[in-house]
Amino acid sequence: MGLPDWEAFLENHIEGFFNRKFSSELEPVEVRKALEHELMRKRKKSKRGDFVPNVYEVLMGIEDYQRLSSRRFIEDLSVFMQKLLITSDVYMDGIFSIRLIKSEDITKSICQVTSYFEDAEKSKKKDVEDGTLVLDKKSFNVPLNLPPVRLFASLAVESGDDEGARLELGEQKIYIGRRSENEFLLTDPKASRLHAYIEYVRHRHVLYDAQSTNGTFVNGERIESTVLNQDDIIQIGNTILRYEVPE
Asked: What residues does the FHA domain cover (predicted)?
């Protein structure tokens, strides 16, 4: 083990020791850190890119579960994970699921995260035990006090006729151009009426050129389609946009 690895090892274990020693309850930030660690630990390389598991189970003590197991909290974890996929440049197949599970075997203020790859059919058939709160991206019913869609990225015009315009992005399809019915309406005369569109594919935003007259460019290169990454610069006509994932 090299010096940087040894320092990281000590930092993680010392931090964990003090968290357990002086914290009386599990904090949301610790759950997010545990999910991020598990996602990166299970990252697998393939010809289509790096893939990560789509099912995450978070085991916690009974008191922590009773305090944290709300739909609001699990929605916040979902948005955190969807942002993490983009900033880590990884992909996910199947239905994304987070499961909070209470366990008598877990000490208060500690959580354990496990993950696995699961296809959609298996997810539908899986029985859910009592004491488990589940979010499945395609089947979760959002209560009235939550927004109807999860927004975790944005597209902002940095220069051009529509400078300052911004659109929040989630899982919905977005059309871009001069048509009045587009979700992102541009007034740039060099933009086509339907110039480009964004789809949510494998839990990532993909930008497609819609056979525009003047083309769509990402980081200076003309594209037909491309997966968007943090701080990508998009040019449509004379309009410059930036793709962002806010913290």
From this structure: 174-223
Largest CA distance in the chain: 64
- Residue-range definition of the domain harbouring residue 177: 151-244
CA distances from 93 to 23, 169, 185, 190 (A): 36, 20, 31, 37
Of 116, 140, 168, the last residue of a domain is 116
Q: Give 232's DSSP letter.
A: -
Cut 0.85: pTM above it: no
Structure tokens at 203: 């839990």
As given in the structure block, the two tokens for residue 25 are: 């309850």
Q: How many domains does the chain have?
A: 2
CB 212 within 8 A of CB 195: yes
pLDDT digit string (tens) for the chain, length 247 residues: 555 555 555 555 555 555 455 557 899 999 999 999 999 999 999 888 899 999 999 999 999 999 998 888 988 999 999 999 999 999 998 888 899 999 999 998 999 999 999 875 555 555 444 455 555 444 333 333 334 457 889 999 999 999 999 999 998 999 999 999 999 999 999 999 999 999 999 899 999 999 999 999 999 999 999 999 999 999 999 999 999 998 7
